[in-house]
Amino acid sequence: MSEIFKALANLTKKPDKKHFAMVEGKEVEVSLDKKLEMMRHGEENYMFKGEDIVLRPRPRPKTQYSVLRKAEKGYVFQDGDIHWPIDTVEGGEAWLIEHE
Known about the structure:
This protein is α+β, with helices and mostly antiparallel strands. The protein has helices at residues 2-10, 32-41, and strands at 19-23, 26-30, 46-49, 52-55, 64-77, 85-90, 93-99.
């Protein structure tokens, strides 16, 4: 019976599996949870912030919308209704694109 305990004591433990990810051109060792998260979002969407590896912020779309303003050459509307332009005149109103 003591031989079994000696055999068990001499067994070596397998080293834990290491997980690596490519962040900004560098191969970095990460935890299994972080590797799975990076696989879900894509490794190219991660960056270094100090020593930490964080998800890169998404670029916000720049909103463009038209606004009715006075212009050098613009429209004259029937009874002030913007859906019924009558004519184009100097100093009328025009739809101009503004950026947010």
